[in-house]
Every structure is written in structure tokens, then in C-alpha cells.
């Protein structure tokens, strides 16, 4: 994973709108073949609100103060003029739906989660691949916008949000942890490797994201762990990938983060109607 410095976010350019009247929205589709493991582009902005959503695999959305891990059917609303970028894991497809302010039923003024129903996903892709009369396209788009902006209380459960410190002094440290969450080195060893003092790191993390470095690192590991075990990775193998020497220690950390054991978590996700509708 890549991270950017505060200057990159502050100076991110704004792209022109991709939606022309009388149309109400537009959707771009990107696969991992288009990007590999690198971000789609440097941080940038759009004059329109954007819904970033995952069609297949795992999509990471990068924002100045957080990253979001999206599974199929999960999306995040991003307000207009908000700097962002994204990257896709192997065999993944991410979609980006742009909506001008005049098209929205409700304003998008903060980053928030949304479930994208399967029927809406397929219709958005259908509109992007097929010609049709303008009046029919506009009517279809209006219905899709209404469906996307329906309240969805269940959308707040299970998202993989990772808060990000903004101080450039810890940029290389953050990149190292995100790139290899299972690195077995201690926190002090990591600080030394990146030429950082312990007090400096702890102060930055507490100030920027309101938690210790240790808690943040565990959060990164647990975000990876949740994806691994839901994808079918054995618990012992997931523990090793996440830097734990034993399955018991891994399970204890997992329970502390999610309030249930790894096996209970998998059972809950697999029983969730949202998972059954969307998972590919």
C-alpha cells in the first residue's frame, strides 16, 4: 500500500466533472489489471460527489485521515472536492459513480458507508456498457440515485476503516506497517529502523488519530485478519500473516477488536444476508 504526505493531499488537483447534462450520474470501472498494486493515481478531487464501491474482491479507498477496505457490495460516499485515491487487490474490481450536487436527493457532506444492492450494481454497469435513449437513461439514473440514498442502518457494521496520522515524520513508518502488517519486529525496533524516537511517535499518533501506535498497529493487523479468515484462510495461517506467534494470542486480539472469536466472526459474516447477496 502507498501513503501520501500532507503536501500531496493539500495540493491534489481537481479533475473536471465527468457528467454532462442532461445526465444525472456517470460510473467508471477499474480492475486490478489497470492498476496492479499501485494506487489509481496521486491524490485528486472531483467537483461532484463520488460513491466508491467494490464489485469484486477488495478495494482500498485512501483519504487524508483514513483508509477504507471495501468488500463486494460495500461503498463509501465521498463529498465533492475531497482529496482521495484508491487501489485494488488482485482479482478485484472497483467502481466509481459520480453525482453532481443537483442530482442528489440528500446532500453528501461527509464520508459515510453505504451498501450498494446487487441489482443497483448490475444496473450501473449496464448503463455504462449499453446505449439507450436519453430519456430512458435519465429515468433509470433517477431511480438508482433514489435507491442509493435510501437509509441503510446495516451498512455501519463490518467496514474496515483504518485511521491515518497526517504528520509526515511517521510517513515511512506508516507505509512499512501497511505494507507488512505481520512484521514481527517490536515497536521500538521499527521506530529505530525509521530513525524515530518513541516519544515522538506516541505523541503524533495520540494527537492525529487519538490512539497509541500499538493500538493502531493492532487495528491494521485485525483489518487484514478479518479479510483473510472470511476469504477462507485457516486461523493459524492468518495468525502468522498478521504477526502472531500463536493462534491463542491472535484469537485474543481478534476478540478484543471485534467482540467475538475468529470462528464466530466468520459464521456471523456468512450468515449475514448482505454477505450472501454480494460476496463474489
Structure description:
The chain is globular and about 60 Å long. 34% of the residues are buried. Strand 3 and strand 4 form a beta hairpin. The protein has 280 residues and is an alpha+beta fold. It folds into two domains: 6-156, Sandwich (Jelly Rolls), CATH 2.60.120; 166-273, Arc Repressor Mutant, subunit A (Orthogonal Bundle), CATH 1.10.10.60. The strands form two sheets. Strands 1-7-2-5-8 form a five-stranded antiparallel β-sheet. A four-stranded antiparallel β-sheet has the order 6-3-4-9. The chain contains twelve helices and nine strands.
Radius of gyration: 20 Å
Principal-axes shape call: globular
- Can you summarize the main beta sheet? 5 strands, antiparallel
* Sequence of secondary-structure elements: HEHEEEEEEEHHEHHHHHHHH
Summarize the structure.
The protein is of the alpha+beta class. The protein contains 12 helices and 9 strands.
Main attributes of the structure:
280 residues, alpha+beta, Jelly Rolls, Arc Repressor Mutant, subunit A, 2 domains, five-stranded antiparallel beta sheet, four-stranded antiparallel beta sheet, globular
